[in-house]
Amino acid sequence: MRPPTSELEALTAKYRGRRQALIQVLQDIQDRFHWLPPEALERVAADLGVPLVQVYGVATFYRSFSLRPQGRHTCVVCLGTACHVRGGQAVLEGFERRLGVGAGQTTPDGAYTLERVNCLGACALAPLAVVDGRYHARMTEAKVGAVLAEAEEAGKA
Ligand code: FES
C-alpha cells in the first residue's frame, strides 16, 4: 500500500525538526503501512532535518523495518536442517500454492507476506511455521489452509 500524502504528512509533521525522533517516526510509518516507502523516507529526512543517507542507514540497520511492501499477515516457514528433513519444503510449497506467491514475496492484495528462514531456534518443534507471531509446531502442508483461515479470523477481531 502506498501512503496517501496527507497521511504521511500528518505522521511526520509532529516530529518536525526533532532529529532524535528518527527511529520513532520510522516505527510509526512501519506500523501504519507495514513498510517504509521511498517517498516516506524522503519526507522524514526533510521534516526532521536529517540527511537522507542517515535515514536509510537507520532504516536498513534494524530488522523490524522493511524497505519492501509487507502484507497485513506474515507467514514465516523454517527451512533449517531439522525442519527441512521433517518436511519443511512441502510446508513452504503449501503456503506458496495457497497464496500464489513465492518466499520473499507479498500477495498483490497486500494481505500476506511469505518468508523463509534458516532456523528459528526451536528445532524440537520441526517443521515449524510462524504466522503473525503464532507458532505452528509439526506443521504440515495439509494444515496450511486452516492456519491461514485462523490468521484471517484473528485479523478481524
Ligand atoms: S531448523 Fe527449524 S527451528 Fe531449527
Report on this structure.
Helix content is 46%, strand content 13%. Helix 1 (5-13) packs parallel to helix 3, helix 2 packs antiparallel against helix 3 and helix 3 (38-48) packs across helix 4. The protein is elongated, with a radius of gyration of 18 Å. The protein starts with a helix and ends with a helix. By secondary structure, the protein is of the alpha+beta class. It folds into 2 domains: 5-61, Orthogonal Bundle (Arc Repressor Mutant, subunit A), CATH 1.10.10; 73-156, 3-Layer(aba) Sandwich (Glutaredoxin). Strand 4 and strand 5 (134-136) form a beta hairpin. The structure holds FE2/S2 (inorganic) cluster. FE2/S2 (inorganic) cluster (FES) is lined by residues 78, 80-83, 119-123, 126, 128.
